[in-house]
């Protein structure tokens, strides 16, 4: 991988990133250790002494990791033999070359994106290397709790949606557009509910997700919903039996956000704006609340068996979509590598080629935005297309609330104006974007 010269510097642990690395990441590690402690009896019941020994080894690995982080030790090569280890270690070499002999990559000196991803990968190694507790998801409880605490909001959304389905065939184009915009916004604001941001403290959707959409429109600082609509409606009009419209959604958090994404994608199918939807989740537990295959299936099962007619109707329909093959779940190790998306074509050509088959890629959440734009200190007015740095498998759109200090594609003066009244605007999660790029 050649060193990049013409791009702005990477965000490193010196700004907002500094507080994340200094405070949030150690807090997350402490919580993970605590979670393992609390499950000791369960490990014993399931696996006997072997389970307890594995738990002890995982805890000592994680304590060592926390110490390395807090004392700004060099980031060391991975020593496990998991399938992605070689790619990680190559990336570490690349970081070494970038630092031009200015010392080893370390927690507070290296790019924030890299060290943060690296921490989650080491957490995974702590478990994966220690059978019989190798597949224990240390973040599962938090994700489930977010789902249960968002119960009211999920009921409100499922009820609204099932009512909408009753007469969806009778909606004219304008009405269809209005409904799409609503569900896009629910999915956008659903991204407030991630757990790495609050270091694993609760962050669920408490109020009805549909009620305050109007009031929140001014906080959507890039709003390309009209362009998204044009793409979808034109694709629908051109659509013939031979050529299906495929939408891909690169998922972010489980819990309320996932339900909001599933409702959005059900709407795309039910309105015939799309014929098939492909979901992309994480193959290992990631950034506390990100969706894995287990979370995806668990969520649909929970909905199905819920004691609420419209919730369970959603769950039953969605299971049906999976069985019929109009919903397809994928995971690929690339999504949990530290690489930015402009290197996908080189690092994961199979994934890139798969995404090229899509008519529209929806990228959910802040981390996806950081990887789309290379997590760099761009000027606010730099076009999104430029920041994507040649990543363009298909038309794409980011739905993201701002939780890290990078943002492109703003109008001249727009960023400075918000900054003047709200210094925290880039990291508070209060602002959002629906940012689209169609140009190859
Ligand atoms: O779930 P999301 O929206 O990708 O957010 C994850 C976010 O959590 C944080 O990593 C916290 O460190 C963000 O700043 C990051 O981008
Ligand atoms: Mn996330």
What does this structure look like?
This protein has helices at 16-38, 40-47, 49-70, 85-98, 112-128, 140-149, 151-166, 173-190, 213-216, 225-238, 256-270, 293-304, 309-324, 344-347, 349-355, 366-372, 384-387, 414-421, and strands at residues 220-223, 246-250, 276-281, 327-331, 360-364, 396-401, 432-437. With 440 residues, it is an alpha/beta fold. The protein is globular, with a radius of gyration of 22 Å. Bound molecules: 6-O-phosphono-beta-D-fructofuranose (F6P) and manganese (II) ion (MN). The site of 6-O-phosphono-beta-D-fructofuranose has 16 residues, from helix 1 and helix 16.
Features:
alpha/beta; seven-stranded mixed β-sheet; 7 strands; globular; binds 6-O-phosphono-beta-D-fructofuranose; binds manganese (II) ion; ARMT1; transferase
Strand order in the largest sheet: 1-7-6-5-2-3-4
**Element-level helix/strand string:** HHHHHHHHHEHEHEHHEHHEHHEHE
| Amount of beta strand | 5-15%
Tally the helices: 18
Point out poorly predicted stretches: none
Family: Belongs to the damage-control phosphatase family. Sugar phosphate phosphatase III subfamily.
Catalytic activity: beta-D-fructose 6-phosphate = dihydroxyacetone + D-glyceraldehyde 3-phosphate; beta-D-fructose 1-phosphate + H2O = D-fructose + phosphate; L-glutamyl-[protein] + S-adenosyl-L-methionine = [protein]-L-glutamate 5-O-methyl ester + S-adenosyl-L-homocysteine
Cofactor: Mn(2+); Ni(2+)
GO molecular function: enzyme binding; metal ion binding; phosphatase activity; protein carboxyl O-methyltransferase activity; S-adenosylmethionine-dependent methyltransferase activity
């Amino acid at each position: 991988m050649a060193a990049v010269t013409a791009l702005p510097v990477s965000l490193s642990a010196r700004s907002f990133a500094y507080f994340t690395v200094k405070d949030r990441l150690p807090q997350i590690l402490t919580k993970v250790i605590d979670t393992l402690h609390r499950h000791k009896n369960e490990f014993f019941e399931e696996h006997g002494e072997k389970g307890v020994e594995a738990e002890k080894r995982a805890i000592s690995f994680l304590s060592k990791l926390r110490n390395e982080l807090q004392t700004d030790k060099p980031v060391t090569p991975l020593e496990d033999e998991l399938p992605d280890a070689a790619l990680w270690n190559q990336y570490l070499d690349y970081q070494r070359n970038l630092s031009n002999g200015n010392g080893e990559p370390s927690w507070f000196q290296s790019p924030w994106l890299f060290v943060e991803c690296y921490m989650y990968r080491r957490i995974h190694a702590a478990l994966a290397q220690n059978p019989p507790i190798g597949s224990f998801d240390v973040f599962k409880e938090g994700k489930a709790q977010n789902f249960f605490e968002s119960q009211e909001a999920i009921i409100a959304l499922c009820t609204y949606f099932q009512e909408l389905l009753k007469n969806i065939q009778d909606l004219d184009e304008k009405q269809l557009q209005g409904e799409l915009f609503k569900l896009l916004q629910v999915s956008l604001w659903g991204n407030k509910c991630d757990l790495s941001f609050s270091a694993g403290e609760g962050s669920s959707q408490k109020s009805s997700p549909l009620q305050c959409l109007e009031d929140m429109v001014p906080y959507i600082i890039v709003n390309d919903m009209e362009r998204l609509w044009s793409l979808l409606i034109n694709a629908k009009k051109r659509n013939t039996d031979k050529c299906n419209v495929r939408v891909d959604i690169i998922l972010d958090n489980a819990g309320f956000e996932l339900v909001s994404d599933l409702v959005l994608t059900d709407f795309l199918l039910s309105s015939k704006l799309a014929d098939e939807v492909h979901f992309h989740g994480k193959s290992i537990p990631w950034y506390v609340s990100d969706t894995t295959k287990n979370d995806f299936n668990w969520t649909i099962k929970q909905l199905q068996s819920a004691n609420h007619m419209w919730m369970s109707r959603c769950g039953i329909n969605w299971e049906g979509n999976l069985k019929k093959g109009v919903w397809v779940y994928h995971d690929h190790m690339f999504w949990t590598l530290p690489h930015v998306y402009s290197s996908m074509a080189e690092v994961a050509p199979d994934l890139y080629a798969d995404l090229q088959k899509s008519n529209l890629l929806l990228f959910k959440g802040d981390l996806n935005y950081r990887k789309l734009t290379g997590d760099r200190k761009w000027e606010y007015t730099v076009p999104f297309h430029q920041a994507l740095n040649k990543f363009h498998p298909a038309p794409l759109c980011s739905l993201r609330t701002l939780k890290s200090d990078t943002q492109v594609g703003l109008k001249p003066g727009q960023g400075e104006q918000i900054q003047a009244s709200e210094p925290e605007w880039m990291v508070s999660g209060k602002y959002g974007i629906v940012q689209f790029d169609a140009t190859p």
